[in-house]
Amino acid sequence: MTIATTIDAPALSAKPAKAKKPKPAVRLEDKFARLGLRKDMDFVLHLPMRYEDETEIVTMRDASFRGGSMVQVEGVLTECDIQYRPRRQLVVTIADETSQVVLRFLNFYGSQLKQMAVGARVRARGELRHGFFGAEMVHPTYKMVNEGAALPTALTPVYPAGEGVSQIMLRKAISAALAKLNWHDTLSPALLADLQLEGFEASVRLLHNPPPDADQYSLIEHTHPAWERMKFDELLAQQLSLKRAQAARRTKGATALPVVGHMSAAFLMSLPFALTAAQERVLAEIRADLKQDFPMQRLLQGDVGSGKTIVAALAAVQAIDSGFQAVLMAPTEILAEQHFRKIAAWLEPLGISTAWLTGSLKKKEKDLAKNQIASGEAQLIIGTHAVIQDTVQFAKLGLVIVDEQHRFGVGQRLSLRNKGIAGQVPHQLMMSATPIPRTLAMTYYADLEVSVIDELPPGRTPIVTRMVDQQRRDEVIARVHAAAQEGKQVYWVCPLIEESEALQLQTATDTHAMLAEALPDLNIGLVHGRLKPGEKQLVMDAFIQNQVQVLVATTVIEVGVDVPNASLMVIEHAERFGLSQLHQLRGRVGRGSAASICLLLYQGPLGGTAKQRLMTMRETTDGFEIARKDLELRGPGEFLGARQSGEAMLRFANLETDQWLVDKARKLAIELLQHDLPTVEAHLQRWLGQKEEFLRV
Ligand code: ADP
Ligand code: MG
């Protein structure tokens, strides 16, 4: 569709056309493109986000009985003034036979003022309240009408709009697209009957132009059969696309890593504990994948402290036993270093050679590591994203492990995948302690198998979590002191200050000084993101060895840090943190056998969702439960981060409430891929277009 002209914003805000502006106008076409609207089908599938009911005019007297709800009234203008109290505003009174209503506009244009002549007829829609001027509407939408002007007979759609794109422009462009579209249903009548779904064309038309007798509630709630059809189509496209990506992966070559030999056995023997049943199960899943000659792509989920590292190490051993290299990438230096020490200590006694690579190494050390990696001398490589640099060449990379995978962008994970032996894709194991609800993982992530460690190692005592008002800080400090005297160690997490890293640093430094002064007999450490890696490690080492009893930290300790003797955590301004972040932080304690406590210091009064977050933390330590709650409070887009969520992949369906449709779509996707490829093509073309690329990664 081409729209060459630029249409000015309509009606109310339009000022008389002045001399040409020097700034080149953005073409409407480009404005539409920013909303993802290019082809006719894009417009057709740009469905209303809600509807407004302008079909009815309520008398002013009746309207005043419907306090607070949206109503539309119509009347003759009796008075119009600009008033200055309580602040500058346009105040318009309109009246019908039953009563009068005051319309208030805090921002208004000269052009508006001109329209507002006494005797003119005004149709206004808004929330009627009883305010300063009696029955009134603040900022109603309105238009000037002639007596007896026809009312719309159906709900008025309201579309997602954007800068410089008004409802009127959208409506026009959408009806143009609707008029010329070549309609066909991607699903046959027999299938539709079977699935009890409505036709595509009828559904789309109904949603754009609902007939007067359509059930308004179900339109607004997205439960109308027409919406169901849209949601189903969208989910089907997603399922088809996922399954296709999965099939494509199977055609790619990977080196089989079949050897589970004496190294694995020796490693397990050397551990002071036995694997949990859940660890055994996911290990078996991974082992089976690694034996295949197409690349594994598996997400290992397990709550904080569930013991993912050991499973990853066992996977690495299998790769190495089979004669290939494995690489483990972690998002922070602290975490990478911790993995390196721990895993090297496990594996070096077995004769496995390891290399360590991060951005902070000196050039000489870096070059040495790179040489060992390129020659194959290093069998296991552990590091930060430094391992994905172009200059890092692997001799024979068989397995890629990404810890805390949600911290990395899709691009970063992909570049590791491209470091395999020519023509082959390495197996990939991604780990996450941010438990993603299973439905979400399966529907959002591109082609991905999921393994879950759903039990904690035995002997852990559950963490007790309390909410404490900031005003009781002194009591908290006393408690820290008492804990340290019993030989326990403490994390003190400084508040998150999103707007300013400098301010966050300052706060951490202040907190450190405050605690050092209040607790002179203890050693207080400080760790934050601005420390050089060497300095960071010194502090962490001192903490690990219990030379430092209290560690003041910014969120750098959020991921992975494992110091089992730490059993008290204080989180300041806990109300500023997100749920999954709180859960991650809290996961730093409760790692040993001592009973652990987490104190959530908050500054009241708490807002609604902040309160819900803290209460959730108090009520449960189950990461999956917390993730579910997080999803509920935030919605999936934000939950996964735009980079991973396939962005606008699901515009209409809601994974929480539409699960039954997901199941239907999944079933049909499998069937279509087996028996009806033309339909698969047509459907994907319609719903995904160029978006499909996104799903391949
Ligand atoms: P996460 O899943 O958060 O990465 P880790 O792998 O760091 O957890 O493991 C947490 C702690 O539990 C570590 O100290 C680890 O050595 C220990 N651990 C792992 N598996 C077991 C087990 N089966 N029994 C006892 N302790 C275990
Ligand atoms: Mg971990």
Explain briefly what this protein structure is.
By secondary structure, this protein is an alpha/beta fold. Among the domains are: 56-151, Nucleic acid-binding proteins (OB fold (Dihydrolipoamide Acetyltransferase, E2P), Beta Barrel), CATH 2.40.50.140; 262-453, P-loop containing nucleotide triphosphate hydrolases (Rossmann fold); 463-620, Rossmann fold (3-Layer(aba) Sandwich).
Keywords:
7-stranded mixed beta sheet, 22 strands, OB fold (Dihydrolipoamide Acetyltransferase, E2P), binds adenosine-5'-diphosphate, globular, alpha/beta, Rossmann fold, binds magnesium ion, 697 residues, 26 helices
Task: Describe the 3D structure.
With 697 residues, the protein is an alpha/beta fold. The radius of gyration is 31 Å and the shape is globular. 40% of the residues lie in helices and 17% in strands. It is built from 26 helices and 22 strands. Helix 11 (277-290) runs parallel beside helix 12 (308-321) and helix 21 (608-619) packs antiparallel against helix 22. It starts with 27 loop residues before the first helix and ends with a helix. Bound molecules: adenosine-5'-diphosphate and magnesium ion. Magnesium ion (MG) is lined by residues 308-309, 403, 433, 560.
